[in-house]
Specification:
Elements: E1 6-14, E2 19-22, E3 28-32, E4 39-48, E5 51-61, H1 87-101, E6 111-113, E7 124-130, E8 135-139, E9 146-147, H2 157-167, H3 171-175, E10 182-190, E11 193-198, H4 212-225, E12 232-237, E13 250-257, E14 267-269, H5 277-287, E15 294-297, H6 307-314, E16 318-323, H7 326-333, E17 339-347, E18 357-364
The chain binds S-adenosylmethionine (SAM).
């Protein structure tokens, strides 16, 4: 067996994936679940030219930011990243990350909407299983090992209870489809109903936000801060079932999404990454004699790379871009010169993890 290679580390910053960054060896080293000021020894998990990915082996001098994690699985579970620091510090790391990504933009003060709780918020979780190795749990993205997590503090209580039931006496082995040796299971609590689905596409039955209270806060923010003037004609791209635009002050709207659309004039189904998506949407708008004044978009993590083409065509008065990946958000909004940023919001839909939602509101200059 290959020996683990150990290196010393000293954390001086935390990156956008919540990993501590150490620069005291010849390679920049990324170590998850460390905080600024931590010093110790780490073993290397993988490396390539100039960078290494490592895990803490010995913590010799703990950072003053450290607290004791409330979750017993935290050190091995890949789904939470910040339980070794308190929630205020987690938010500071997130805000710094957001500001760093937007450092070349002319940005107003970033507003932060914190969650009122760090735990018991996720209405769905996804676990991997292997009938061969008799393991159910989270998959480590580097080792691909399945880490059992019979308790999950960030899930809502009905999901936690179901998790316990599945783990009790390995009940899950009796319930997993026997012909699929390796797969995944999703446990979700939506509209006061618990569902367990084995090996179905993620978010089957339509996208819903995982933290309902934060969803309401985002909708309120949009309602109060975005379209403050007269009703507008609105284009809602990646609109799902109209969750965000439903609450807005529009006179007419078109909501576009690939996977699910509600029936009615307002909704059309289209792959927005497909060639010709823009001209398809243009035609649909033309059919409805709908001239777009406001553009709302809320894409998946990959963002909307060709957003400039959409903006150039519609020249909306105002744009609200909601994103779960600030990196693609910054990439997409780079060099959009005809607009100024009126609002920049970080809204914490995913406490305990490095993820968060962002919202940028842009107004046309003239
Ligand atoms: C972050 S969700 C936002 C949904 C909606 N705005 C909401 O708040 O519920 C992203 C949406 O993009 C949709 N989507 C994913 N890939 C797509 C594609 N290629 N074309 C169009 N819509 C897509 C998903 O169905 C999902 O509804």
């Amino acid at each position: 067996m290959r020996q683990k290679r150990s290196i010393p580390f000293e954390i001086t910053s935390v990156d956008s994936l919540g990993q501590g960054v150490s620069k005291i060896t010849d390679k920049i080293t990324f170590i998850p679940k460390t905080a600024i000021g931590d010093k110790g020894e780490a073993f290397i998990v993988s490396e390539r030219k100039g960078v290494a990915f490592a895990r803490t082996e010995k913590l010799l001098e703990p950072s003053a930011q450290r607290i004791k994690s409330e979750c017993s699985h935290f050190s091995s579970c890949p789904s939470c990243h910040f339980l070794h620091v308190d929630y205020d510090q987690e938010l500071r790391y997130k805000k710094e990350n957001f500001e760093r990504l937007f450092r070349h933009f002319s940005l107003p003060q970033v507003e932060v909407i914190a969650a009122d709780r760090r735990f018991a918020y996720r209405n769905r979780i996804q676990l991997h299983y292997s009938l061969k190795s008799k393991l159910l749990g989270m998959k480590d993205p580097q080792s691909f090992m399945i880490i059992p997590i019979p308790e999950c503090l960030i899930a809502v209580p009905p999901v936690t209870a179901e998790l316990r039931r599945l783990y009790c006496n390995d009940q899950w082995i009796k319930e997993a489809p026997p012909h699929v040796m390796e797969g995944h299971v999703e446990i979700y609590w939506i509209k006061d109903e618990l569902k367990v689905s084995w090996n179905r596409p993620y978010s089957e039955g339509g996208f819903t936000q995982v933290f309902e209270e934060m969803n309401l806060k985002l909708k309120n923010f949009l309602k109060e801060q975005w379209l403050t003037e007269s009703p507008t004609n609105l284009l809602d791209l990646f609109g799902g079932n109209g969750n965000l635009s439903d609450c807005l002050n529009y006179s007419r709207r078109l909501c576009v999404d690939m996977y699910q659309t509600l029936p009615g004039e307002d909704f059309i189904s289209q792959d927005l990454y497909a060639t010709g998506a823009l001209s398809f949407v243009q035609k649909e708008l033309k059919k409805r004699s709908l001239l777009i004044e406001s553009l709302l978009l809320d894409p998946p993590r990959s963002g909307l790379k060709n957003i400039k083409e959409w903006i150039k065509f519609f020249t909306p008065k105002t744009i609200a871009y909601v994103s779960c990946d600030p990196q693609t958000l910054a990439r997409d909004l780079k060099d959009i010169e005809e607009y100024t940023i009126r609002k920049a919001l970080l809204i914490d839909f995913f406490p305990s993890t490095y993820h968060f939602e962002s919202l940028i509101i842009l107004d046309r200059k003239n």
